[in-house]
Write a structure and sequence with these properties.
The chain is mainly alpha-helical and 181 residues long. Helix content is 75%, strand content 0%.
């Protein structure tokens, strides 16, 4: 069995298991709220609040985050529009609990954004690492429970967000020197 077939089998099994849970409709209600955190406004708001009120790392957190999202967003769009994987609600006999913002599912932009944010929190505020990554995982799981992503979409989004954050943290000193922050 090929690796792609194994991944597809896993995706279908895990997706169907999640949506087959007796509590899936109730979880979908909560998942809508959790998923909204991945829309991006929450992350920007936290970054702005930290930049204004937290003098030690707040501005660095915001600027590093903007750099990370500068890496993440174009890569996300390139992957999504190159791979063009149909969403489960479009290719399986299931209804999504929400209307997705775009057509394709791989990778999950919500998971990518959540893992960028979690990585930034872990780097600048390590005491909140567990909370930040728990939130990122919840955002990812919420997308599965809403019927708009497969588990590997979430894993790919998490990887993309993590790599984008690492690139931003590694390259921020160069940007800092250029802009004099």
């Amino acid at each position: 069995m090929s690796a792609l077939k194994i991944l597809t089998t896993f995706d279908l099994f895990a997706f169907n298991w999640c949506l087959g849970l007796p509590s899936a409709p109730q979880l979908a209600r909560v998942s809508r709220q959790v998923s909204r955190l991945g829309d991006g406004g929450f992350y920007l708001l936290v970054g702005l609040i930290l930049a204004v009120y937290e003098p030690q790392f707040g501005l660095l957190f915001l600027l590093t985050g903007l750099l990370a999202y500068t890496f993440e967003l174009p890569l996300y769009l390139l992957l999504k529009n190159t791979i063009k994987r149909d969403r489960p609600c479009d290719s399986l006999p299931v209804d999504a609990y929400i209307v997705p913002s775009d057509k394709f599912s791989f990778p999950s932009g919500h998971a990518a954004a959540a893992f960028v944010f979690a990585g930034l929190v872990a780097h600048f505020y390590p005491g909140f690492t567990e909370l930040a990554y728990s939130l990122a995982v919840m955002v990812g799981i919420s997308r599965i429970l809403l019927g708009v992503h497969y588990p590997t979409d979430i894993a790919a989004g998490a990887a993309l967000g993590t790599v984008s954050t690492m690139l931003a943290i590694d390259n921020f000193p160069h940007l800092q020197a250029l802009i004099g922050v």
